[in-house]
Structures are given as structure tokens and as C-alpha cells.
Amino acid sequence: MAVLSPYLYTGGVHKHGLLIELLEDLGGYLIQKVVTGTEVNLIMLIPKKDVPIVKKQSDKLLGIITEAPLTGVEIAIVSPTLASHHLPHSACDVAESLRSPGANTNMIGLARGMGRRVSLSMDYERKLINEHDIAVFTFGAFSDCIINKKPKLFEGIEIPIVVTGGPDLKTEEVPGADLYVGNIGRTSHRLRKADEVNALDKLSKEIGKIADDIRRQQSKDPLSVIPAKVMTEIENQIPEIHSALSPAPLTLQLDGIRVKLPYDEFHEKIEKLEFDEGVILSELANISRSKMKNYILIKIKSKSEVGFAI
Amino acid sequence: MDSLETFVVDSVIASEQEFYRKIIEDNLASLKLAPAVGRIKVVLRPGDSLFQMVIILRDVGSKIKTVDIADVESKSFAKKIIISIKTEQYIPELLEKLWEFYGKANISQPDRLTVVISTDRSEEEAAFIREMMVADPRHRIHENLVDFAIRVTPEGFRVRYHLYKGNRFIFVASEEALKNEWIVEAEEMLEELTGAGEK
User: Fold this and answer.
1) Which stretches of chain A score pLDDT less than 50?
2) pLDDT at position B199 over 60
3) Confidence bin at B196 (pLDDT 50/70/90)
4) Topology given in CATH for the domain delimited by B6-60+138-198
5) Is A115 an interface residue toward B (CB < 8 Å)?
6) Interface predicted TM-score of the whole assembly (ipTM), two decimals
7) CATH of the domain at A156
8) For all residues of chain A together, what is the average pLDDT?
9) Do B46 and A114 lie within an 8 Å CB cutoff?
């Protein structure tokens, strides 16, 4: 199977169709296309050996092509609550800084996550967070809270946990966290000072490393079908997805895909999705009702579980 | 008293002090409270889940009448009153009062600083408008001060005590039941802060 590398193209709308056609001819995948006025952003997976060809075409169109290491990663930004204490800064700034390298982010405000002794998370919230690839918890200014009190919110979270906060702590000091990034605590202003922007850059870089780790683990026992291929088939076989109004109606994850269509109406169609190789999706993946609204969640089984890969 | 002549944030860990100072500064700025606050002291004790804040306000001035912020002219022939505004700050409050009395249909605003009212009794009405109270800065500051206190307190600290008397404001918040000594401590802080300017 060809190795695919994630890239982001930014350029004018004029003739960008040529790039999409080239990508399809090369066997790459278009993950997301965002048109804003006369500009277009394309997030793509390009076969590694063909990257120079796509670069050449993008140069011809006077566009810019950059690596987007977080493409195909869905990240949960978890804030203790949705009160003005945490939003819009710094939680939104964190989410924004993760979207530019290609990630899809969802903001989750816990119902009762605030405070020290009283903070807690609900079963429903934990399940919702576990549907993502990586969880980022945005905490406040006090090291005592971050070290001693807040880690109880991590109970039941099975995905990698990234913590942001004000004080400069080491990752080992925060029990249960896979990564701690300081200097992004509770603020009431936009994060645009040099040290704050540096902290955000560090955060997205380190999360990129975590995503790479997950991919490396995955390559030992690869998925039976890559999520991008499922995405293309859904686009071809279920036309309703084109009229879904949710942002990113098909959201890629490292080991699955979130389909933003109502479960009851569409889950059978998704289960019976056919591939050229003659198999249907329900043989390759678990399809369930997502905790997010009434969406469909596809988690793809590994090659060892299915016995073959396409 | 000058604005913000004392601004103290006290915490066990020095770096957290700086962080919290920034939060308080930002919120003072966004609620436009900075000119009104004379001295402020905040003590943070995350170990005890305790937040204490005392504020001494500057003299914020008296109630504001239309005549303080605008020229009111009556044109009895044209059956109109023309208000030329000098201080832009209070336009929203003034318009709201005028709409209430004369109705939106009778009021036009040809440009930002001019308001024209159509009325049959222009002389009497003009006299009334001149003496009409437009805004009470004290009331506005009280509202903003409570909002400010809630915004800067750590969110989980939902047990609160506050006292607003004259130009003094005490605010104590915690996650646990409040201890009386914490309030006494805050009162002592206020005494200290009051004394700070008299030396």
C-alpha cells in the first residue's frame, strides 16, 4: 500500500480543479476543501513518492503547499466549563492553533468540571471524549490544582491526554498526563505575545509527535482499510452527505471516521457500503451511534482482526 | 486619589501572582473599571481554596444631567428641540431616556452628535430635558464591580461574601463553607489598604 503524506494547499480558486484531478489520478485523497471568497484551502493526502509532482502543479497555480501533520486527527479540546472564565480565551486559541496544521477540533465544556474538590466528569462526557483521537485539557493558573486536584478528570479517558496550564511544570509532575505544555493558562486576552504564541506552537508540534506515535503503533498492525478510502466511498455512494450542513461532514480520525448524518436514517446504508474489492463496510468496521448529536461513528478494525486488508 | 495607585496580588508562588495580575488587569480593562478603582489588593490561597479581594474606589462623581453633556436648544417655530451633544460617552443612555418619553417616531438623529425631537411644547420640554438625569455612574460601577468580582474569581469558588459600602468593596470567595476569620482577614486587609494612602 502506498504511503500517504498529509499536505495543505492554499491558493486561488482559479483552476484549482486541476490540482484535485491530478491528486485523484495519483491515487491521493482530498480530505477537506474550504472555499473562502477567492481563496481555497485543500487538505490532501498525497502518495509520498508523488509529492514533487503535486508541488510542481501547485507552483504553476501560484499556490503554497505545506505539510499538515495533524491531518486526519480529531482532537477534543476539553475545558472545565463553558463559562467566560475559560472561553473564548484560552480554549479557543488552543483549538485554532491546532486547526492550522490540519486537525479537526471539537470544543467540549464539561458540565461540572470547575473547582477543586467539586470538579467531576460524567460518564456521557467521558465516552464522548473517548470517541476522539487525542484529548487536550485546558486548565488554569495554579500548579496546586493542576497537580493535585484536576487529574481526577482524566479517570476513564483512554486516549492520549494533553494538558495545558499557566505554570511551568514538567509532564511527569502531572499524574495521568501524556504531555504538559505551560504558559497557556487562564487568560482574558487573546494569546498573541511572543511567549504565548511560542507555547501554542510547541503544543501543536508536540501533539504532532503524539499523532505520529499513534500512527507508528498502528503500522505494526495496520487498519483493514484506510479511513480516507472509506471517506471517498461514502462521498460516491451516499449523495446526501453533500447536502449535510455540519462543518466537515466527514471527519477523519486516525482509526475511523465520523459521519455527520442522522444514525437511524443512514446507518444501514453505511453498513452496506460496497468497496471495489467486493467487501462491505460492516465486515471491516464497527458502526455505532456517536455520543455527539445523533451522528454515526465508524471505527475501523485492524488487519489482524479481519484477516485481510484492502 | 490617583487611579490604581496600589495594585497588589499576593500568592504563595510568585509566577502565579504575575499570571493572576494579568487576568485582573484584563478584566478591569474590559469592564472599563480601571479609572474607577483606586487601590486593589488580591490574596490567593489555592491550598485553602480561598480568594480574597478588597478594593477602594475613587470618587466617581455625581449624577449626570443632560445639561452637563449637551446643549439643548428649543425652536418653538419649527416645533423642535435640538440637542447638540458634547460628551459622546453617554449617548446610549440619553437616547434610551428620550425614546421612553417621546417615542422613537418623534426623535431623529441627523448625525452622531445631534438629536432632534419633534414636540408642540418645545420651551417647556427643553427645560425638562436640561434637568433630566441621564446616568448615575455609581450605579453603573456597582453593577460592573459585581461582574468583575465574579469574572476574576476562580470559577469553582461559588461560596461568596461581598460587602459594598461607600467606596469600599470586600469580596471573599471559596469552594468550602466560608470561615469567619477569612472575612475578618479581608476587613483587616481593607484597613491596611486605607492606611496605605495616608502615610
Assistant:
1) none
2) no
3) low
4) top7, de novo designed protein (3.30.1710)
5) yes
6) 0.79
7) 3.40.50.2300
8) 92
9) no
